[in-house]
Design a protein that fits this description.
By secondary structure, the chain is mostly helical. It has two domains: 3-108; 116-173. The chain is built from five helices and no strands. The protein has helices at 3-32, 36-65, 71-99, 113-172, 177-189. Residues 180-190 have a biased composition (Acidic residues). Belongs to the CPA3 antiporters (TC 2.A.63) subunit G family.
Length: 190
């Protein structure tokens, strides 16, 4: 075995052990920390860093000891993890706060409380305005529908009157002798 291969194996082993330790610390943080927010923080930071180091060890291993090139896939996975893990962690803790999961007793000040109260009032006002607009829009749609129906009925009535007038005019008009002959020929052919 070559010195370079041995040193790479040692580096890869150290990275895997470090990754495992970070994941273990994250797991211990999930159990030991006092509230949802600190637990989510421990899990998010520990696992993201642990997975990153594990992916680094994986890329080193496959780059030097295998013919399979997984580096683009590993980079893509890391980008995905770096984009989704913090956002998911933030959304989970934000949702926990909004549904009322309590902070620990150690937190003397709830810095988000005034923001939450103002946000709720703003959302209520916005919802009320939207409901009023929707009601006004609904009334306008009903009025327009009634107007269109009235116009359609008027147009249908005009069309029926025009057809009736045309039919009455056709009945009152006497046929010329040539038209009578043509009508007689049509009757004989049938």
């Amino acid at each position: 075995m070559c010195v370079i291969e041995l040193s790479l194996e040692i580096i890869i082993s150290i990275l895997i052990i470090l990754s495992s330790i970070l994941s273990l610390i994250a797991a211990i943080g999930l159990i030991r920390l006092p509230d949802t927010y600190t637990r989510a923080h421990a899990a998010g930071i520990g696992n993201t860093l642990g997975i990153t180091i594990m992916m680094l060890a994986l890329s080193l291993y496959f780059t030097y000891f295998s013919s399979v090139n997984l580096l683009p896939r590993i980079i893509l996975a890391l980008v995905f993890i770096f984009l989704t893990a913090p956002i998911a962690n933030h959304l989970i803790t934000r949702s926990a706060y909004h549904i009322g999961v309590p902070l620990t007793k150690k937190h003397k000040i709830d810095e988000l409380y005034p923001v939450k109260k103002e946000e709720i009032q703003a959302l209520r006002a916005e919802r009320l305005q939207r409901e009023v607009r929707e009601e006004e829009d609904y009334e306008k749609v009903i009025q327009l529908t009634q107007l269109v129906d009235a116009m359609r009925d008027k147009r249908l009535l005009q069309h029926e009157q025009e057809e009736e007038e045309a039919f009455q005019a056709e009945i009152k008009t006497p046929l010329s002798p040539t038209e009578e002959l043509n009508d007689d020929d049509d009757d004989n052919t049938n």
